[in-house]
Specification:
Structural class: alpha+beta
Largest sheet: 3 strands, antiparallel
Number of strands: 9
Number of helices: 4
Order of helices and strands: EHEEEEHHEEEEH
Number of domains: 3
Radius of gyration: 20 Å
Helix content: 10-25%
Strand content: 25-35%
Length: 178
């Protein structure tokens, strides 16, 4: 696996470079194709909310810090087709609200466009997430999904303890941030 890693997101003082050479695994591989890069770098992922394909919110903790509160974590929001600044403006309460009741999240942002060598600034409003995913069938819990062509009996009903626990955690998190 080490032949395929790009550790250029890690600081040179990170303990992993006691096992690997910083020059070989970070400096030479930075911005090179064909290497697997750790998006969070040396930060530890403490929580993640995935609310749609390619739309997620990650809470990171620096590798040398000890954080006991959620609001002390670094928040990184990624929404397909939305600029990072506009995605960061969406609050935890808005994102978690999609799990509570159906709705649509919209983001507003400005961007530069060029048409026939004329540059113009346009303001866009884009639906960045919603509570409906039409690529699969959701089970009764509202969290698990299965393909439409699934042939298992009683597939619509979910009795998983993990789903009940996840729903409980989502409800608690939503109450805390609201």
């Amino acid at each position: 696996m080490s032949d395929h890693l790009d550790l250029s997101n890690f600081p040179p003082t990170h303990p992993i470079f006691k096992m690997f050479s910083y020059e070989e695994f970070a400096a030479k591989r930075k911005s090179q194709f064909g290497y697997l890069k750790v998006d969070s770098g040396a930060s530890v992922i403490r929580a993640q909310i995935v609310h749609k394909k390619k739309c997620y919110e990650t809470f990171l903790e620096e590798y040398d810090a000890i954080t006991t509160y959620l609001h002390d974590l670094k928040r990184k929001v990624t929404l397909k087709g939305c600029q990072a600044g506009a995605a960061e403006k969406l609050t935890d309460s808005e994102i978690l609200g999609l799990f509570q009741e159906p709705g649509v999240l919209k983001a507003r942002f400005k961007s530069l466009r060029s048409s026939k060598h004329i540059i113009s600034m346009i303001q866009q409003e884009k639906n960045v997430s919603n509570s409906f995913d039409n690529s699969a069938m959701y089970r009764s819990c509202g969290l698990c999904n299965v393909p439409f062509d699934c042939t298992l009996d009683n597939i619509a009903f979910c009795s998983s303890v993990d789903c009940k626990l996840m729903r409980l955690l989502l409800d608690i998190w939503y109450r805390v941030v609201s």
